[in-house]
## 1
Amino acid sequence: MLILLTTILNDDSLECRVCIQGMTVVYDLIEDGATEELIEHYLEFACNMFEEGEWKEQCKVFIDQEYEKLIKILEGEFPVETLCTLMSACEYPLPPINGACDACMVGFTFLEDLWSQDLGIELMEFVLEYVCYIFPEGKWRDECDKFMDQEYEVFIKWLDNEFPPQMICTLLDACEFPIDPIDDGLCYFCEGAFTFLYDLFDFDLMNDQQIEVVLESLCGLFNEGPARQNCDKFIDQEYEELEKYIKAEFPPTAICALVGACDVQPPVYDTECEFCRIFYRMTLDFISADFTVHDIEILLDSVCDVFQNEAQAQCVEFVNTYYEALIKALNEKWPANTACEAFNACPAQ
């Protein structure tokens, strides 16, 4: 069914109305099995509906250069409003933009919505080529074009691994990350970085490849220099442990203590009972609310690394002695006094 191009949509510009109606007609032509020649002829006709000027020429250039991709997009039932926005025929309803962070968040929120439609890499590459047209001509479109030219392949990887806009825009330095591993210390950075990641990602739903890309990208939060070098070194050294702890959803404080980014106060104890209570409370604090027996096993295999010297030796001996009992007690969240009495580490009260 053909729709007359002269039908006017009350709330849009002429260019937008013509584009939307024209692309709707093309949808119908494709659905009716029209030949490519007929579709191309109609698209050229649609461009000629505009008055002489920049948009008419831009329309023709777009059709000439992107015809094959355009047909694939239309065959995939891509929203015509979005397509006409990418063609700059329709104006994107931008929120107030007060800086680079706002602009970046707008652009990647737009892309995130499209990526969720599972369009495939080829069509998303097409979208990335034209996404900057959601901004009017001027500063933010120019900034967007510059970002796309510099980081195109990286954007594909980030979007394909479902990086949220906040993460991408922070990695691009458009949005500020408030912690520096040199100025603020490695411990504060580590806890802040993993809190940031936990706020943005649901690691429980991510596969190994996605987690790997997240960890590889983490140090991009910093500009080139000592801060990034320290971060890269830290990630390289602790990658396997970090991946394991993230999968187990250990809290940031636990992760950073277990990999040595944060120091744990040496336990002060005189008896096995005192050590048991200190160790058990710390271990219980290290596991997440939704932990599994496997998570507890991972923790018990590593937890003694937070101690040094005599305390570490005491910890290893304690874990080896009470390993199965510790798993049961931690899994059932027994209080420290109850657990240590059950282990016979403390006398019954």
## 2
Amino acid sequence: MMLNLLQNLHQKTYRLETIFKEQRNPAYSITKSYARQIEVYYYGKVKDEYQFQILVVDFDFSDDDETMGKLIKKISYLFDELECKVDAEGNITAVDNLLFLRMRWLKIQTELAKTHKGEAVDNYFSRVSSLLEDETKLIDFLGGYNMFGLLFNGLLQSFETKRKRESSEGFTEIMTPVKVGDKMILKISAQNLEQTEVDDFRGVFVCKGDQYEEGYIEIKKQNSHLKHSLLWIG
């Protein structure tokens, strides 16, 4: 099943969305959403790894009329074309067009620097540059739930057996597969949250046959609620 799930991502279109809600004070809260429509192409197997191309064909950011929102959206275009290798469990193992991304960032940064100034902007630029200089850090970033971690999440083995893994936030993620009719549902829960700032962590991934259909991850903290979701749309 695991290998078929990867291969069946070919020529599929998904909608990825992150919704962030924060209660700034008892009378004021904010909600922001960041959505992308992506196309996935599978180009075959090289040794024990699988080659993919991911194209982001549409962006929809709720705050792109604000200065910082516009900046983040423009920087997001840096990652609208990704070529990568993935292992059998669905972990990104290499970024094949890393040189292209570095050269593209130099061009984007030069253009943005003409109209965006200040310490906050400089720090943001520095973080992106540092990320692109370290492929291991870049892979961790791209595998985050807010990037492509709902698609390539290292959880394919979990559709066949219950597993645990350590989260970067210090708690333990528990993956429990449950078969419901012709669908396999992977339920995500957490242990040891009391040792972290996270109040609640949960998620669900759904496969029908060898087709990955949808999934989400929710993270709740004291004053914030973050939800990452993925939906197969074509």
## 3
Amino acid sequence: QLHYRANAFPNMLTWVLQTIEYFAKRSDLQLLIRIHPAEIRGTLPSRQPLLPEIKKVWSQLPKNIFIIPPESPVSTYAAMMECDSVIIYGTKTGVELTSVGIPVIVGGEAWIRDKGITMDPSTAEEYFQCLDKLPLGERLDSNSLKRARMYAYHFFFRRMIPLQFTEPLSENPYVKLNITSLDQLLPGADPGLDIICDGILSGSPFIYPAERLGIDRV
């Protein structure tokens, strides 16, 4: 998890349960909960699955609250495109959704938090004040959308540093190193490796200048 000085809730489960409790009293709204597929399909499956935790408190959900379980093939992005707005806790999905104009409320820890794009409550009281404004009834304005897309570019293409000698795999260990000569590791041979080494040795920013070097991933 990422850590910010301010966080509205002590953990994700508290946030989820209190959010359900709030929407149970808002029959004018619907809440769609998408449980992360990585709970069962990730590299490290969850040791505390969310759905059983919800059922401990809510054996039967209110009629306006729906859950897409982690094993569902339903696309998270397709579902979110149908929503007025999206509430997240600790996912990079906020970066992607804001870049297509969907308003996002950050209830916990996320990369998109505090970037001047999302609604970022620092206390539970502020969080519920954000929910009181729902439905928002509109997408992000043009300035916010531009800022969101600029940040998405920075996040996915400048902060993700490519290494020319790596090859993605579909299963563990997920990355293969294609190093056939030490020359591939020499200064100047791989811009991404140079950036990482310079950052470690001299403290320079770990930022890949994709706008200059391009965004092709080898």
## 4
Amino acid sequence: MSDNKKVSFKALAWPLFDAIVADAPMRDLNPWENGEYHPDYATLCLLLGVPLHLEANTRSGVPALALDIWVAYELRRGGLDPDAVWPRAEAPRVVDRDVLRLVRALPKKALGNEIMTKLRSGSGVGGVATASANMLGKNYFKQVDVIMSSWQTGPELMISTKRMDSSFGKNMQNRVEESYGDAKNLSLRHPLASIGFVYSLRSTAYDTARPQYLWLVDLLIKLGREDDAYDACCLVMPEWEGAGPADEGEVDEDEPVISPDDVEVEDVEEEPPVEDVDAVLAALPVVSLRHDLVPDEVSPGRFFKVILEGVLDASPISMHVKARELRRGLKPTS
């Protein structure tokens, strides 16, 4: 990496995000108990602390990315194929699992390592591996934040995420309206896919923008009841001391997607090494969650229960075997 090239916030954040997910104590524990899904909130709080530590603004995409990574992590905890859930826990973040199976079957000392290096860097692979995923809806392409898909099945699960930490009265309605239209667009082309919406709202909204908070909660509940839009909606309300990510406008991912090739390419080579990841993670700003401000109908536990059961109900019993076993409280056979 050249000395005069500025390192992006995402390049700084990915090693920290990856370390948090890799070392999560609940990573391999069954999230299901007595038919209810129990999310790993401790890991979410750590992930939300990364953009605060980096002082990453909203336009960097890092504050929203923390939410995407947690949602994908929970889906993997629920037993879905780690290679099919995007963003993956390692680079390349978005690549079809059949491509990975092919590469892994190649001799590692020959083509295998070389091709995997290219996939991880996103260079010279013709868009096969990227850092974002665009899906064609009924009328237009839409970048989807968290997705499970493959060549054989098409998209089985699509989740949009939004985050608002300040300026609650400025863009809240616009963001929800855009997401509602996107859900209609996607569901009309992919009616069997489970489609969800996760919204992160800083807890200060409850005190400083109570009408907007009440409006959002009411709307999320209603959106989750639509037959041809979202199967479930989720609200998380993080709380921390001090300022939050600077609101400098929408991130680039919210720009219209004209072509399926309009994707972000992640250059892993640009990720600078972190000398002492454990020390950095230990010093992350403390983030907690206000569960008392989140109604049951939009709680994360209910959200993942509905989304995961929707995937299982819409697929043959021979698919997603691990997820089915975990759902039944059994020890996975694979």
